[in-house]
Design goal:
152 residues; 5-stranded parallel β-sheet; 7 helices
Length: 152
């Protein structure tokens, strides 16, 4: 029993130290679904709901990036979306940089409100000088829940 208590104490101390020493803190107290919206708003990135996302896609004047993994993209994605996995943003950016102008309206999405891949990709694109970014928070989950068309 004393050994288990000691292990719990050490684990708590190490976890607390990691939290305080990490350059990006783990958001223990905030609602994860609100995190992406808060961070995007702070960065000046527009937010779109499902209706606005559909209107933007239907207008045809927007570039759409799917920030999920390539396998998730292959399983189904929003119409016209290009695969741009956040986990490969450094490697994939040159593939799109040739036609992605700084003011090109670009919509980015991922799985849904509990993922942050689309937020991270938006922030990366903003760092590259892109200014007309739209984050679809509901992502693939809300799109399919609304029974909207997908591509494979």
């Amino acid at each position: 029993m004393a050994q288990a208590a000691w292990m719990l104490l050490v684990a708590t101390a190490l976890g607390t130290a990691a939290q305080w020493l990490s350059p990006t803190r783990i958001p223990w107290r905030e609602a994860w679904s609100a995190r992406a919206q808060t961070k995007a708003t702070e960065a000046g990135i527009a937010i779109a709901d499902t209706a606005r996302t559909r209107a933007l896609i239907d207008s045809g004047g927007i570039l759409v990036f799917d920030a999920r993994s390539a396998s998730d993209y292959d399983a189904g994605h929003l119409p016209g979306a290009l695969s741009f996995p956040d986990s490969q943003r450094i490697e994939k950016y040159p593939d799109y940089a040739g036609f992605l102008t700084p003011d090109q309206q670009t919509l980015i999405y991922c799985s849904g409100q509990t993922c942050d891949e689309s937020l991270e990709l938006c922030l990366f694109l903003k760092e590259q000088g892109h200014t007309n970014l739209v984050l679809y928070l509901g992502g693939y989950q809300d799109w399919t829940a609304a029974q909207l068309p997908i591509s494979k």
